[in-house]
C-alpha cells in the first residue's frame, strides 16, 4: 500500500497526531437505548485520516496514545495492518482506551456517546514526534478533540508550532464534539488553533455556535481572517468548497473553488470527513490543483460512506479511480 515516497528507509511526508479509539456501531438505526448489540471498529478522527492516507499510498507517521488494555491491543493491531509504524504509538499503563458508541439516523447520519474520562488519548505528551521526523515532513495534521484535555492539549499546540518551525504545512480539523468540552472553551481553543494552522478543514456544523458566517463562503472567509491561508469546508450532500487568501501556495490570488460531490446511497457516514481530509492531503502533497483536490477528496469521502465503519470502509486509489469513472 506504499509508493516510493514511503518505503522503508524513506521518511514519511505527512505526520498525523491525535486520538485513536473504539467505535461501537449499532445493529440498527435509532437512539442508543433501542440498540440491542454493537460491532467493534477502530476509529478516532486523526486515526481515520492516518489510515486513509495509507490506503491512498501516502503512509504517514501517526502519533497517538492508547491504553495498555485489550482495546489498545486491538487498535495497535489495526494500525499495524494499515501499515502505520508502531514507533509513534504510545501505550499508557495507567489509563484506559477511549470508547465511542455510535447512533445512526435514517440518512446514515451519526451521533456519538463518548466514554473518555482521563483516557489514554487525553494524556498525549509534548515531544512525542521526534524533530527528525518533523524536519522530513511536508505536512502535519491534527484535530480538535485533543484540545479538550491536558496534557494532550499542550501536546497538540506544541506539535503545530514545531511543524510550522520545521517548514511543514500545518492543517487542523476542529471536529466539534460539544460533550467533550468542560475544562477549556471550545471557541478560544479553535481560535488559537486557527492562528497556528495553514490549512483548516471543517464543516459549518463544527462552527455553528461560533461567529463564522451564515453561509459556507462567508464562513470560509471568516476563518481565513483568523490565520489560515486555505480553508476547506465539507457540505454533506452538496459537496465541498475551498477558499484561499493570496498567500496560499495553491492560488495566486483570493480564490473560491467548489465541487458538487457525488451521488451515493450512504450506509454509514462515520469517517467520511476524515476520508475527505486524507484525500485533500494526499492530493496536495502530490501537487494537484485545488479543483482536482476537491474532486478527488469528495470521491474518497463518497466511497467511504458506502460501507459501515470508519477505517474498514476507507478506499484505495484504484477504488477511487473506478468510482470517479463510473460517476
TrEMBL record:
One MF term in the entry's GO annotations: ATP binding
Signal peptide (UniProt feature, chain positions):
none
Q: Does the keyword Metal-binding apply?
A: no
Q: Which keywords does this Swiss-Prot/TrEMBL entry list?
A: ATP-binding, Kinase, Nucleotide-binding, Transferase
Q: Which residues form the Carbohydrate kinase PfkB domain?
A: 13-315
UniProt xrefs under Pfam families: PfkB (PF00294)
Source organism superkingdom: Archaea
Looking up CDD domains in the UniProt record yields: bac_FRK
| Family designation | Belongs to the carbohydrate kinase PfkB family.
Quote the PANTHER family the UniProt record gives.
HEXOKINASE FAMILY MEMBER, PSEUDOURIDINE KINASE-RELATED
Q: What is this protein called?
A: Fructokinase
Amino acid at each position: 500500500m506504499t509508493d516510493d515516497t514511503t518505503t522503508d528507509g524513506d521518511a514519511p511526508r505527512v505526520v498525523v497526531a491525535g486520538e485513536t479509539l473504539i467505535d461501537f456501531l449499532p445493529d440498527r438505526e435509532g437512539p442508543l437505548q433501542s440498540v440491542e448489540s454493537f460491532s467493534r471498529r477502530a476509529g478516532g478522527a486523526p486515526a481515520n485520516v492516518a489510515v486513509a492516507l495509507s490506503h491512498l499510498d501516502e503512509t504517514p507517521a501517526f502519533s497517538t496514545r492508547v491504553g495498555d488494555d485489550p482495546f489498545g491491543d486491538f487498535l495497535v493491531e489495526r494500525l499495524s495492518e494499515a501499515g502505520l509504524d508502531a514507533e509513534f504509538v504510545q501505550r499508557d499503563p495507567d489509563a484506559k482506551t477511549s470508547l465511542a458508541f455510535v447512533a445512526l439516523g435514517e440518512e446514515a447520519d451519526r451521533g456519538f456517546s463518548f466514554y473518555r474520562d482521563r483516557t489514554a488519548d487525553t494524556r498525549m505528551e509534548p515531544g512525542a514526534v521526534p524533530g527528525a521526523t518533523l524536519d522530513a515532513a511536508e505536512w502535519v495534521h491534527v484535530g480538535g478533540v485533543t484540545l479538550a484535555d491536558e496534557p494532550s492539549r499542550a501536546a497538540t499546540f506544541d506539535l503545530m508550532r514545531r511543524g510550522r518551525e520545521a517548514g511543514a504545512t500545518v492543517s487542523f480539523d476542529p471536529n466539534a464534539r460539544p460533550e467533550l468540552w468542560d475544562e477549556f472553551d471550545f471557541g478560544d481553543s479553535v481560535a488559537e488553533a486557527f492562528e497556528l494552522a495553514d490549512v483548516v478543514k471543517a464543516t459549518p456544523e463544527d462552527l455553528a455556535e461560533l461567529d463564522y458566517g451564515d453561509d459556507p463562503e462567508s464562513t470560509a472567509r471568516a476563518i481565513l481572517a483568523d490565520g489560515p491561508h486555505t480553508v476547506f469546508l465539507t457540505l454533506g450532500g452538496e459537496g465541498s468548497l475551498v477558499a484561499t487568501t493570496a498567500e496560499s501556495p495553491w492560488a495566486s490570488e483570493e480564490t473560491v473553488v467548489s465541487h458538487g460531490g457525488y451521488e451515493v446511497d450512504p450506509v454509514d457516514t462515520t469517517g467520511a470527513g476524515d476520508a475527505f481530509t486524507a484525500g485533500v492531503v494526499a492530493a496536495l502533497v502530490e501537487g494537484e490543483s485545488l479543483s482536482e483536490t476537491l474532486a478527488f477528496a469528495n470521491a474518497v469521502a463518497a466511497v467511504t460512506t458506502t460501507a459501515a465503519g470508519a477505517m474498514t470502509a476507507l478506499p484505495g486509489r484504484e477504488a477511487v479511480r473506478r468510482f470517479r469513472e463510473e460517476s
